[in-house]
User: Which sequence fits this backbone?
């Protein structure tokens, strides 16, 4: 699990964000940990179950990339929308077999 990494991207901003997130912002999460920079705790609560699923071998087969989950809205009125993607060898294997 320690070698798993995740990229979290802000895909949409629908209103005010107290953290100042902007569309296109990206964060790297090491395994089950938080990124090396400040990150919103409320947003992390939405992302953590997806990280846990992906780190445990789960897939989202209804997504274009089953190692990614889109449309994760922040709990603060859904103003910020995230996409999380698992970054490791499985993603490359998926692309090769698609």
Assistant:
């Amino acid at each position: 699990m320690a070698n798993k990494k995740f990229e979290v991207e802000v895909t949409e901003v629908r209103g005010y964000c107290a953290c100042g997130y902007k569309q296109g912002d990206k964060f790297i999460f090491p395994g089950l940990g938080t990124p090396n920079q400040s990150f919103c705790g409320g947003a992390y609560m939405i992302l953590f179950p997806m990280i846990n699923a992906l780190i445990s071998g789960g897939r989202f087969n209804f997504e274009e990339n089953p190692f990614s989950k889109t449309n994760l809205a922040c709990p603060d009125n859904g103003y910020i929308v995230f996409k999380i993607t698992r970054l490791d060898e499985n993603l490359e294997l998926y692309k090769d077999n698609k």
